[in-house]
Design goal:
6-stranded parallel β-sheet, 455 residues, alpha/beta, transferase, 2 domains, Rossmann fold, globular, 13 strands
Length: 455
């Protein structure tokens, strides 16, 4: 299936946070494989961020792929607050608000493309509805909303907002949304969702193998077609041409036994206070398990500007764990780490991007949610899919996770019968997901979407 004479052009409009930028960049890769040109729009800062951090492929030399850098007024880019009561990254709100200013240049691009393409397809993050609102005035433009969260978490959000109507499915208890968002971001969500009614359908980074029940419930409740096009990330990470191009942590992993290493990372929007970092550090050391810990502050609105806080470890800690652990202070290639055969577990915040990458690489998760959709993703991972264990229950979100709890959780995940069971479950789910891709179920979903947009 190809896009004859480039009669269709696709415009990607991501939300300016790493887990969002990354998913739409991976979606671009797959659309490009059908011979359809892709225009990826954003501020120059966030396009640069997406490009330098992408793993699994390089978009720059790909024919038909175009970054469009738009300018916005300079926005405040303060550091995160490690001691905030709500762990949602409120320091990013000025960045989120500033991106409304790309509405005008995005509209100009859409009109320009519409004059030479038979149809312009806009795929926009659900948090960028206001930016693409002018698409409705372009006769040959059509927009689709991309949801970066799990179908499970979105279903419960919609279901609860509708007053919990009767549905033909078992409804598990899910964590409350208390503490998941700041008041300002909740208002931001509500405002953006006002612009979603005009879309032609929705896209999810998931698959029916993982979330079939909740995809069906969402489609029935919303009355619009949806496409589960995941997993969007590459299922296999290509080898780098030479060791000088590999991150140093991968060289370290090469020396470790299969399934022996715990990967510890809490994503790009989480900042821990010094006391919690100390408890985590002591727990990891006392567990006597091999680990690689990516310890860095949450991203700022502009990751290239200003100084970054360096979280403090106990005195002499790095030397004290040098035989068992590696602490990484810079950006680390998560997909490549998870794909490495030495990785046997992932201590994670349960952001959906991380969940999908872990699922596709067959790595079980120790669930420690921080904010947003993460508490409900943790429920999906541990209770429904049974490919992880609970490290921190959302009901106790205001409590510190002690070194004793960390030690126990790490041993359970890495060195117990319980850990072996969830590791087996994760490996089996990985094979089912990969089989669904290989046998054409996912490609049929893709073909359905491409047929729709080039009709």
């Amino acid at each position: 299936m190809s896009n004859h004479e480039n009669s269709v052009a696709v415009v990607m409009v991501p939300f300016p946070a790493q887990g969002h930028l990354n998913q739409l960049l991976h979606l671009s890769r797959i659309i490009l494989s059908y011979g359809i040109p892709v225009h990826y729009v954003g501020t120059s800062t966030h396009n640069r961020q997406a490009n330098v951090r992408v793993h699994g492929w390089d978009p720059v030399p790909v024919a038909g792929f175009h970054f469009h850098d738009f300018q916005v007024p300079q926005f405040s880019s303060p550091p995160p607050d490690p001691d905030a009561d709500i762990k949602f990254p409120s320091h990013l709100q000025p960045c989120f608000d500033a991106c409304w200013h790309i509405r005008e240049p995005v509209g100009e691009l859409l009109r320009k493309l519409s004059s030479r393409a038979r149809r312009v397809i806009i795929i926009h993050d659900s948090m960028m509805g206001s930016v693409v609102q002018d698409a409705g005035s372009i006769p040959n433009a059509e927009s689709y909303t991309f949801h970066t969260v799990s179908a499970f978490s979105l279903f419960f959000y919609v279901w609860e907002s509708m007053g919990k109507p009767q549905v033909n499915a078992e409804m598990p208890d899910v964590p409350s949304l208390d503490g998941c968002f700041t008041k300002e971001f909740s208002e931001f969500i509500a405002m953006q969702h006002k612009f979603l009614n005009v879309n032609a359908g929705s896209i999810y980074n998931t698959s029916k193998v993982i979330e079939g029940t909740y995809l069906e419930l969402l489609e029935n409740m919303r009355g619009k077609q949806l496409w589960a096009l995941g997993p969007l990330n590459p299922l296999r990470v290509p080898e780098k041409d030479s060791s000088c191009n590999r991150h140093h942590c991968l060289e370290w992993l090469d020396k470790q036994a299969i399934n022996s290493v715990l990967y510890v990372s809490f994503g790009t929007t989480t900042t821990m206070g010094d006391e919690q970092i100390q408890e985590l550090a002591f727990g990891l050391r006392r567990s006597n398990q091999t680990f690689i810990w990516v310890l860095r502050d949450a991203d700022k609105g502009d990751v290239f500007r200003g100084e970054v806080r360096r979280p403090e470890l106990p005195n002499g800690y790095v030397d004290s764990v040098k035989d068992k652990g590696l602490v990484v202070r810079d950006w680390a290639p998560q997909l490549e780490i998870l794909a490495h055969p030495a990785i046997g577990g992932f201590l994670s915040h349960c952001g959906w991007n991380s969940c999908m990458e872990s699922i596709t690489m067959g790595v079980p998760i120790g669930a420690w949610p921080m904010h947003s959709d993460q508490p409900r993703n943790a429920e999906l991972i541990t209770k429904l899919l049974k490919i992880g264990i609970t490290v921190k229950d959302w009901a106790h979100r205001d409590e510190k996770v002690t070194a004793d709890v960390v030690e126990d959780a790490v041993r359970r995940l890495m060195a117990s019968k319980e850990g072996d069971e969830v590791r087996k479950g994760a490996a089996e789910l990985r094979e089912r997901v990969r089989q669904s891709v290989g046998e054409g179920e996912v490609s049929k979903e893709w073909d359905s979407f491409i047929t729709r947009i080039i009709r």
